[in-house]
Amino acid sequence: MGNIFLFSLIVGLASALVLIPISKNKTSSKKEGTHPPLKTVLTATVLLLVPAVLAFYYFSNLDRNFTSLWVLVILVTAAGALFATGKERMIKAVLFIGSLIVGAYFLTAFLFNADEKYEHAEMTEKVEIEAFDEKETPASVPPQFARNKMKKAFGQVPNTSYYELGNLQIQKVDGDYVYIAPVEFSGFFKWWNGDKTPGYFTLSATDSSANPKFIKEDMVYTPSAYFNKNIERHIRLQYPKHIFYGDAQLEVDDKGKPYYIRTYGEFVSARNGFTVKGIVLVNPKNGETKSYTLADVPEFIDGAVSPEAVSLQNSYFGNYVQGFWNSKFGKSDVKLPSDEGTEANVSPIFDENGNMYYFTDFTSPKEGVDSMLGYSLTNSRTGEATYYTGNLEESYMDSRGALDIIEKKFIEKKWDGEMPVLYNFYGEASWLTPVLDSNGFLQNYFIVSAANPEISAYGNTPNDAIKKYKIALQKGGSTVDGSSDAEVKQVSGTVVRVYKEKSGDYTIVSFLLDNRKSYIVSSENTPLAIYLKEGDKVNVHFMATGEEFLPVKEMVIEGLE
Predict the structure, then answer these.
(1) pTM for this structure?
(2) Three-state SS sequence of 261-276
(3) Cα angle 362, 365, 366; round to 5
(4) What is the pLDDT of residues 521-543, one digit of tens each?
(5) Cα atoms in the 13 Å half-sphere on the side-chain side of 136
(6) For residue 229, what is the DSSP state?
(7) Which whole-number Å values give the CA distances from 67 to 80, 251, 271, 272, 338, in the listed order?
């Protein structure tokens, strides 16, 4: 607190010296009883200004760099010039004009620093993402559904009436992909009586049937606390000159211990724009804080770069490719980042190595166009971003187009999609989207081809939807072995078990060979598969995807060829 008092005192004293007409006061003081002495006026002004400055910076949490005073400087110098006379007025008028020039520079910086912003946000460009690993399950439980389940489990929280569910976010904890949501105070008087929150909820981000778990961990410094216990104010008091962007986020280490983090950085120029430099980490139980650069962020932190900062960088990259004025008028090469993301217009996803990225697709600024121009993946720990143009010979549908298809598909049930993410399933750029009913409950997972919207499928789980989508790709004239990494292998054996299910006009045949491996084939590709029975000897060409049911490309049944 000492720093903010000293800062306010310096600002108050300097403002008082500019405001008070010193020469006029000296002249008038010679006439008895006309005006109070300079010392008295100066003291009174300081006593008024210091509390006002202190209150403003304390409650606003604004950084206490002297550049943040530019509006106050304009007001004070203007008033000082107005009250002064003679040479003093001329001097203060010069100060006022100088403050106006500085203010104009700050106000118009966005017109001239667009190129700098683009340079800070420039991304590595590639054509296409690698094929999805068929052995992995996408982290695809939608946030709204997860939040609903946590609310229904709120009875696990002691003194439930004191609290409400905080912001939800996804992360990797001890090898599992989970949603984390802190328990927050539901108002000032609940904080006054409760003093600390009891813990946080965790829920699987890959298993929609999992139930939330409440983890008991006392937290004193939180976003819903007040005064010095408010997490953002606590961070500001410790780091008065840091430039922060984005909300404080809860991160949990592999032992389940919670920490709050906040992203800091620096302005691009003239208190305008933002580029990330690191994080401040806070122990919410005792308030201990520590600052880290991005290169030194602890390993358990997934979202070192706030989603708000990533969304801002995406805006710079998409809009300012040819400067500010082009972004408003010509719009040549401009691409607009989507606003369909789940966290500040971006969607967190994980790669096969467990690294978190923020996904955003970009579309044309032209109204009524749902064609995707590309998509970006930003590493949530380093801030390094890659922009994927996709196959330039094909026109890809954007996330809004995928959501429109889902809305029309389930128009009678009034179901909607949430959190569309682009994957490369079997060499086909495809949107995977959870589908929710009007109450926010998960109904299915929908996959649609970005290049061929007529090819789609849905299932109760992501893997079930992928399995059916594989068949839909074959029906649609596409291929499941284009750019997939899976190798085609051959095997012969005896059928041990057979299971058949109808899928539209065709039959999906799943069978187990005597090598204890399971395979799956559609009667569209192999019509004679409908006659397959236990004991048949078969020769199979299949894709070694590593899945539980291996997709069959060709199959010959002995005696039926």
Answers:
(1) 0.84
(2) EEEEEECCECCECCEE
(3) 125
(4) 888 778 899 999 999 999 999 88
(5) 17
(6) G
(7) 20, 32, 8, 11, 34
